[in-house]
Design goal:
The chain folds into five domains: 7-329, Nucleoside phosphorylase domain (Rossmann fold, 3-Layer(aba) Sandwich); 369-508, no CATH class; 511-585; 795-817 and 829-925, Ankyrin repeat-containing domain (Serine Threonine Protein Phosphatase 5, Tetratricopeptide repeat), CATH 1.25.40.20; 950-1086, Ankyrin repeat-containing domain (Serine Threonine Protein Phosphatase 5, Tetratricopeptide repeat, Alpha Horseshoe), CATH 1.25.40. The longest helix is centred in the first third of the chain and has 31 residues, at 333-363. By secondary structure, the chain is an alpha/beta fold. It contains 49 helices and 16 strands.
């Protein structure tokens, strides 16, 4: 084999993780080369290389170190490649991955097909996912996006796509190169249609090397292709370090990260923002529990063949004009200095935006801008001047009064007036002031509590006032890098520190003031609105309407709006005048008039909509509402998609003036439309017992119909029935994800029907419906169970592959005591695959449901399931009364097993002080070992529950007890940044340098979290600054990787060895450079760090 004169002649980098992927790439070379003349591998480069030519391009193929895979190893391979071969201009990451097949959506991905990352929207074609931290609720998180590939690759990609549309691909031709492979063509050739089986997401693998024992009836029907040639699919690839082992986890992940992905893999995310490239994957499995290695070699070959074909569309001349990857990345320190004047502003802006996104995610604050936007739409220009010009407002505006309390009767226009105030302030203050707003919203449970108010105001303040960010960052830093969310108290304290003490004032909205605004609004709607255009030629009629409305409005904006809606439908003067004479004088009379006016043919639909909007917890989307009214309880079938309204936006016509459509928007998500009650007064009226009395006596029967239908028990029964009927009519052959997309009401029905049923379970027809669903509609039950268990709020009751849980379990979990009793009478067997009815009822916290299994002879200490036993389940949920009942009935307080190992650890971790006291009084062993956190003290310390830590210590807890995720309570508290807990532990003998656990030691845990005060505390108490161990090797490497400049300075001042080796990233400088923390890198270099790598 020949050798090229210089390694600079190689311009294409090709990375493959596995030996079989590298072998397939080598087989695609048109010419193999020896190592180039004079090539000296960089001292930090441990890659293995193969050299050669594909078409007109010289290609170097690099693979990950043997036995390693994942994002970090890929990043190391890429950085090492560029350190030794700085002239590389474009790069490909080629290998195998798991295809996300959705045949019913037109995404018919098969094994052996090729998936290519294609930039979509804000992504570079690949996004990074990861599982939440070890302490979190294990939700999937979207971490970032891949940078866009070089333009020359994008041009080639577009050209190749066009050619594939016009003719055949050359991939089959290139696949003949597989004959060169040592294993021969058998394994590198197509493996046969009979071995390509796509199973339903709900069906887990039944064991064994292949799917011999898996049921054929559980496969998805797909038409056989005319050819065995692989097809090419373009879209977003998901990449991360966490192995996705089953379809349930896969579907849940995509639901939570909110992206349409076509492939899963485990290397590309390590190259994000560090190695711009294109990702090519051959599909070797479907990212589910049925994966095996049969298709891996063939998939490696198809991906390599596509990579070769793609390179044939890259012009040599254009490639030579393309900047090198190093130039693109500006990875060398000197290069950073050279380009900093050009890129600094953009980089800072991007980093600031990322930081703000992190703050928004961490705060989880509700977005009230939608409420403001809706109010601004309703506002009539010129209204509100009476208030803006009032002495009270002007005193508040100039600072004499710093707080105003604006109050008035329902429907008088407080919300719209608030929008006028905000508009005024924005015009007057421009950028010189900070305006914060929050709208409490009766239709949205995320906008109804003090906690949500504080979170929203903190988020707005952080975004709109740079001067306050330092103080907020101090509070945020104490929480953000741990799993815990900030408490309302801590955020309130921080918020109050930023605001002055205020004087209180009050403004009352009086009818006389508001009537001016009402008149202006009515005048504008009559003369310029489309609804009254028919009367424009008769100004006296318009004056007559305006007078009639103003005589009855009496300061109620809401009443005036409804009156206009009521009058606009009249087409002639006699009927208009008759309606004017009968205009209601109160909102309740107005609402009764609207209800009575609903066409009898549509009355059932209107009642159903109002039942859901009045009593459902989450808001209804317009698509959900459309399916709700499409259900015919007495029909055959009950539901059919063809029954849906052709124009969903007309759904408001069932209940005019009582409901409204609101468009919602959210970052990283398409906007959607919700159907809501039009005003809080509507909900109050519908829940009241005054519906009949507000009706005209002649229509009292209609009023009684609405009154009875909107009774809580009756409405809950109807909602339960509608949900179960809907679930029973679905195409159960489809996966959970498919059902959620094709049947919009599916998710609501699955998640919430039991909550409604609990209210009305005593009604015989409801109980009969529940039993029918549980015992007779088997396929519907299984489809529902899959959706219900994907709800993050539901305890993870089983692992993939378990047999399905019986109805008794879920009935007990939901506290459906009458259903539980009937099922117990029928089934008799209390044991439910390791999860018994007693444990389920304990998880649900329903004392009455817990008592039922006892009456049927349940063993209070029966073992198994997620929580191990009933007492631990109740302890985890904080259900004190249930715990007392279990203990009175002989529950073993120290029984072990399940997620938390024992009840005391569960209660301690969850922060249930009263329950911890109860357990200790009943003989709980304070030092019992086991479970995720080792012992109760470590669990309480990991969440910062100071009162519980003190309680455990007073009852004999060992400060240095070893075991669990963090090995010691001190490391657990350090990882969360809980200074007060740490002070208590240190005062009582905690060993500051004890080694073990996830972070190796307490100092490294604090450094990884960026908890400067905690680090100072540990160092003052004798922490060894250079102690080794843990994920990051040492504290300096942890702080450098996270980009905590202040902490790096602290460690260096306290004697940290800047060149100490170890850990996942080698040393501090490599860790900082991997994440692009330039400031930290410069600090390390000034303190003697050896620049052992040229790549940042």
């Amino acid at each position: 084999m020949k050798s090229l004169e210089s390694s600079d002649m190689y311009t294409v980098g090709w990375i493959s993780a596995l030996p079989i992927e590298r072998a397939a790439a080598i087989a695609m070379l048109d010419e193999r080369h020896d190592k180039p003349c004079g090539f000296v591998q960089h001292q930090a480069d441990s890659n293995s290389y193969s050299w050669g030519r594909m078409g007109e391009h010289n290609v170097v193929i690099a693979s990950l170190p043997a036995g390693l895979y994942g994002t970090t190893s890929a990043a190391t391979t890429a950085s090492s490649l560029l350190s030794s071969l700085p002239n590389i201009r474009i790069s490909l990451l080629v290998g195998i991955g798991g295809g996300i097949a959705r045949p019913e959506q037109g995404r018919d991905i098969r094994l052996g097909d090729i998936v290519v990352s294609e930039p979509r929207g804000t992504t570079g074609g690949l996004l990074q996912y990861d599982l939440g931290k070890a302490l979190s609720n294990q939700r999937w998180e979207r971490k970032g996006f891949l940078s866009l590939p070089p333009r020359v690759l994008l041009h080639a990609l577009a050209s190749l796509q066009a050619e594939h549309e016009l003719g055949e691909s050359r991939v089959p031709e290139f696949l003949t190169a597989a004959e060169k492979l040592k294993k021969g063509a058998n394994w590198y050739s197509y493996q046969g249609f009979e071995h390509d089986r796509l199973f339903r997401s709900s069906y887990g693998h039944k064991g064994g090397h292949d799917c011999h024992d898996c049921e054929e009836m559980q496969t998805v029907d797909r038409a056989e292709r005319e050819t065995t040639d692989p097809e090419v699919h373009y879209g977003i690839i998901a990449s991360g370090n966490t192995l996705v082992k089953d379809a349930i986890s896969r579907d849940r992940m995509f639901e939570e990260i909110g992206e349409e992905c076509i492939c899963l893999e485990m290397e590309a995310a390590g190259l994000m923002n560090h190695f711009p490239c294109l990702v090519i994957r051959g599909v070797s499995d479907y990212a589910d529990s049925h994966k095996n290695d049969r298709w891996q070699r063939y998939a490696s070959a198809t991906a390599a063949a596509y990579g070769k074909e793609l390179l044939s569309y890259v012009p040599t001349a254009e490639l030579q004009e393309t900047r090198t990857a190093l130039e693109v990345l500006s990875s060398d320190i000197q290069q950073i200095h050279a380009i900093v004047s050009v890129t600094k502003t953009a980089v800072e802006s991007l980093e600031s935006n990322r930081h703000l996104d992190q703050i928004r995610t961490w705060l989880s604050a509700p977005d009230t801008s939608t409420n403001l936007n809706e109010a601004q739409k309703k506002r009539q220009a010129g209204t509100g001047l009476w208030f803006l010009e009032s002495a009270s407002f002007q005193e508040w505006y100039v600072g004499t009064r710093q707080t105003l309390w604006l109050y008035g009767i329902p429907g008088c226009g407080k919300t719209v007036l608030s929008a006028s105030i905000i508009d005024y302030l924005n015009q007057q203050l421009h950028s010189t002031g900070v305006i914060l707003e929050f709208f409490f919203d009766f239709t949205d449970t995320k906008k109804q509590t003090l906690d949500q108010l504080v979170r929203s105001l903190i988020g707005q303040l952080y975004l709109r006032s740079k001067d306050t960010r330092k103080e907020l960052d101090r509070v945020i830093k104490a929480y953000k890098n741990s799993d815990r969310q900030p408490t309302c108290e801590s955020l309130s304290t921080a918020f109050q520190q930023l605001l002055s003490h205020v004087q209180k004032g009050m403004v009352s909205i009086r009818p006389g003031s508001v009537n001016t605004d009402i008149r202006l609004y009515v005048h504008e709607q009559l003369r310029n609105g489309r609804d009254f255009a028919r009367w424009c030629s008769k100004p006296t009629v318009l004056d007559e309407i305006e007078t009639g409305i103003m005589q009855r409005a009496d300061g109620m904006f809401r009443l005036a709006v409804c009156q206009l809606d009521n009058l606009q439908k009249h087409l002639d003067l006699p009927r208009l005048r008759k309606s004017l004479q009968l205009l209601p004088r109160t909102l309740e009379e107005m609402y009764a008039r609207i209800l009575n006016g609903i066409d009898e043919d549509y009355r059932d639909c209107a009642i159903r909509i109002l039942q859901f909007l009045t009593y459902s917890e989450p808001p209804l989307t317009i698509e959900e509402a459309v399916d709700i009214v499409a259900i015919d309880p007495s029909g055959h079938p009950v539901f059919d998609p063809t029954f849906r309204m052709p124009d969903p936006r007309e759904i408001g016509k069932f209940c005019p003036s009582l409901v409204t459509l609101v468009v919602r928007e959210q970052r990283y998500r398409k906007s959607w439309t919700e159907l809501q009650l039009a005003h809080l007064s509507v909900q109050q009226y519908l829940k009241s017992d005054r519906i009949v009395s507000s009706f005209d006596p002649k229509s009292s029967d209609v009023g009684m119909l609405f009154q009875n239908s909107l009774n809580l028990t009756v409405a809950s029964g109807d909602i339960t029935t509608v949900c179960l009927q809907y679930l029973s009519q679905l195409d159960t052959r489809k996966s959970t994800g498919e059902l959620a997309k094709e049947y919009p009401f599916f998710v609501y029905s699955a998640r919430y029907w039991m909550g409604h049923a609990k209210i009305c379970e005593t009604e015989k027809h409801v109980l009969d419906r529940i039993l029918k669903f549980f015992l007779e509609q088997v396929e519907a039950y299984e489809a529902w169970e899959q959706a219900f268990c994907l709800d993050p709020s539901v305890p993870p009751v089983f692992e993939p592959g378990y047999e399905k849980m019986p109805p008794l379990y879920y009935a007990a979990l939901a506290g459906l005591q009458h259903t539980v009793q009937l099922l117990l009478n029928r089934e008799g067997d209390l044991k439910v695959h390791g999860e018994d009815a007693l444990q389920a009822a304990s998880m649900g916290g329903c004392t009455e449901a817990v008592q039922l299994p006892f009456r049927n002879g349940a063993d209070v200490n029966i073992q198994g399931g997620h929580f191990g036993n009933a007492l631990q389940a109740a302890s985890a949920g904080g259900y004190t009364e249930v715990m007392q009942l279990l203990l009175r009935n002989g529950a073993d307080v120290n029984i072990q097993g399940g997620e938390f190992d024992n009840a005391l650890q569960a209660a301690s971790l969850r922060g249930h002080t009263e329950d911890v006291q109860l357990l200790l009084r009943n003989g709980a062993d304070v030092n019992i070992q086991g479970g995720h956190f080792g012992n109760a003290l470590q669990g309480a310390s990991s969440r910062g529950h100071l009162e519980i830590v003190q309680l455990l210590f007073r009852n004999g807890a060992d400060m240095n007890k070893r075991g669990g995720l963090f090995d010691t309570a001190l490391q657990a508290a350090s990882a969360g940044g809980y200074t007060e807990v740490m002070q208590l532990l240190l005062r009582n003998g905690a060993d500051v340098n004890i080694q073990g656990g996830y972070f190796g030691n307490a100092l490294q845990a604090a450094s990884a979290g960026g908890y400067t005060e905690v680090m100072q505390l540990l160092l003052r108490n004798g922490a060894d600054v250079n102690i080794q161990g843990g994920e990051f090797g040492n504290a300096l490497q942890a702080a450098s990787l996270r980009g905590h400049t202040e902490d790096v300075q602290l460690l260096l001042r306290n004697g940290a060895d800047v060149n100490i080796q170890g850990g996942e990233f080698g040393n501090a400088l490599q860790a900082a450079s991997l994440r692009g923390h330039t400031e930290v890198m410069q600090l390390l270099l000034r303190n003697g760090a050896k620049n052992t790598r040229s790549l940042v």
